[in-house]
Amino acid sequence: MAAHGSPRGSPRVHDLCPSLDSTKSPNDRNSYRLIRLDSGVEALLISSSDENKQKSACACSVQAGSFSDPMKCQGLAHYCEHMVFLGSKRYPGESQFEEFLSENGGESNAYTECEYTCLYFEVNRKALHQALHMFAELLHEPLFTPDASSRELQAIESEFQKKRRSDRVRAETLFASFASQGHPWRIFGWGNLQSLDADPKAQGIDLHAELGEFFRHHYKACRMRLSVFGVESLDSLESAVANAFSVIPPSFGEQLDFASHGLPLHSKDLPRLVRVRPISDGHVLWMSWQLPSQLGHYQSKPASYLSSLIGDEGHGSILSLLKDRGWATDLTAGAGGDNFTNSSNSMIFSVEITLTVNGLTNWTEVATTVFQYLDVLKGDLPSYLYEEKKQMAECSFRFLQEKDPGDMVIDMSERMLPLYKHQADHLLTGPWMYADFREDLVRSILTSLSARGCFFMLMSSSYGRAGGLEPTDATTTSDSQQGDDEARGVDPGFAELAGCKPQVEPYFGTEYWDCRIEDTTLSRWETLNAMEKMHVPPPNQFIATDFSILKQNVEKEEELACRPSIYTGFPSIQRLLPSPQCLEDVRAGLKLWHVPCAAHFKQPRSQVSVKMHSPYYALDANNVRKGVLLELYILCFNDSLNEMLYAAGKARLHCAVSSSPTHGLTIRAGGFSQKLLCLVESTLRARKLEEYATRFDRFQAMHEALLRSYKNEWLKPQVHCSDLRKLLLMPSMPRPAMKEAQLSTCGSEQLMDFAQNFNSEMGCELLVSGNTPKDTFLDWATAVFDGYTLAPQTKVEVDVVQLPVGSATVWMQTAVDTTQSNSAVEIYFQLPGRDAWHWQEDQARVRVLLALLEDVMYESLFDELRTKQQLGYSVGCSLRDSFGVPGLRLRI
Ligand SMILES: [Zn+2]
User: Fold this and answer.
1) Of 34, 105, 656, 682, which cross-links 16 as Cys (Cβ 3.0–4.6 Å)?
2) pLDDT tens string 655-684
3) Which of 136, 139, 137, 114 shows the shortest CA–CA distance to 64?
4) Residue ranges of domains in the chain, CATH in brackets
5) What is the distance in A from the centroid of ligand 1 to the CA of 85?
6) What tens digit of pLDDT does each residue of 36-65 get?
7) What residue ranges carry the coiled-coil annotation (predicted)?
8) pTM for the whole thing?
């Protein structure tokens, strides 16, 4: 450990890892230094010398999260996180820090995890030193004024009311409520008025005193991990950090220990099956297992290897087999990146399966498929799949893509926490490390994924829905004497619960039934034969081997010279990239654009966009039925590509098909350039859904999924409210109920007809940017579109209402979910003119001014409506582009 005096005589700092900078990616132009101040604060300094960069950023992770909440004040860590930013002794204004950031192009935010709290800000680079001072003062002596305290409690309550309507949060909280007595999982970390105000008051506890005590006890130098990004030298950053944080008194030792709490669930409570009522329409099965913490294995990542096998979507995978039977539409596997599923006391490994109605009826068979696959893995854990992961991680690291400064400092300050166990010289490389294939560790996880150690959760709208919303997919045999509380589901096991009232989770009010699993079922899951079709993924064909980068075209470079602005007094404009070049003399109806810019980004990657403009659809875009069929078509198209795209994704290639109301269909693809065009070609080949025609179960599952998404579309007040605005502006936009009605009368025949007509004639436009040579692109496109009937198409304009000047329209609607306690309001201002969004400088003016207005307004809007008046938890303003018509929206 080298110690050296700081240039300005501020406190001494210690360099914790002099070799750190040599571990960075060859593509990384930043410099790094890891230091510890005498006080015990550790900081990672990230210096950029790129004069084009405007933003600096800083994050501080403090080792104190909701696991540290006292039982008498649950939610205190979260509450403390909200309070810290509201004024310090040195800078007492409640919004002084926020105003300073806003005046300097920045903003702040924070979040509370189980074992830590992360607070961060971004600001223009020239204001970094002052912002660091203000930030350090907040972390040293926040004011915690009584006035702000009571208002911020309301913000916590609003946040809770919002989260309360999230099925995912409800499921997680319910799961945590099954933890053993005394385990920190049982703490209600969100907090609300009940847990932070009413309960403490009833016990004569002074919340304000508790808050002060919590802060003094936990926000200490030795618990702080800081990461700072600045466009200045490392020495300059070092002295800025040392000076600003010299206000925080030294403290040492005393790390938190949550590992000793051990696994959250008592083994006698497993296996367990819990059936849950959701808010949304849908059916989900979670199978979850608790394992000892895996954070110490970041170098070999056994859990990540295993989750990529179980979560595989290619041929022979669990999902592929479930889809073939029409039982599921989605599957994810593994532990999340969050601190709840990956903590110092446990890792929660889950398989989450989105079921169809048929899948719900056969859910025990769905689980059987999972256990069968786990059995296959016990016999076959191929090391080539590990090598593939390693190879792709190395490529991603070698050609590291630049990250936003804010995201970068957050990631780094988290990774520095002792909880994540990273060696100092692995701080920059940790996420990309696949040191060696530890089959022993993988097997030990695999052994834990047993039927008897599993926590099953079934969430289904056939059990009824939260707050009395109509159940869906429930069989309507009302011959029994039970009240409507016991709607019979299509899940056969649920019928046996007839007459049983659900239990209620106390904080979120989630209704559930704690059920038994038959011993015969468990034994069946333990003695299985693997299905023939099941197998681990074969070697991946999409993995790139050629990473050479195209040279920059010299004549293109001339284009990058500075051009004077057309506005007097404005600086001249430096173009970063050459403009796209339209390749001449291709076929009529086929337009090709090319931008070679790989050398600029030093990346062997390309991006491809394909616009397919079909007159069959576009000239009739207001036809609700065609609109619905297009959405169904896109959904099935993506589904038919899924097995291929999943493998491509593992090779860092992505490709997705989406619908567009102006022309029809867009394909966007990107990634390492070598095999990218080949992927787009295979995608295009599947466009007529020929394979899909014979797969009726799959069609049925997609049809069901789309119907469900229409039913859930307006459940969230904010989405409903935004859609009302869109309806005012574009009356031709169909409401979810209209789409639902049309879709229920569309079968697979209609879909196949649509696919055929859609593809019978079209105009195509392609843009390729990055590392693909012009000639390669031209030859490829000529060959691929050879068999297409192509014709030039004219752009179809979507009608947008011009709002009358001098009058206002108010539209009010009751929430779809009438038990909802949240409301949403939007105020929209329309600007005159259309097509003001092109990127020529004279036309970009409106957009720039609106963006500026958004920036100027945001801080005071938030401060007034959220912080002062406490009218709602999420408040914001943003510019809107309604098919070329500019506008500004305020929302709460
Ligand atoms: Zn919060």
Assistant:
1) 34
2) 999 998 888 999 999 999 999 999 999 999
3) 114
4) 2-6+20-247 (3.30.830.10), 267-403+420-526 (3.30.830.10), 574-784 (3.30.830.10), 826-891 (no CATH)
5) 12
6) 999 999 999 999 999 888 899 999 999 999
7) none
8) 0.87
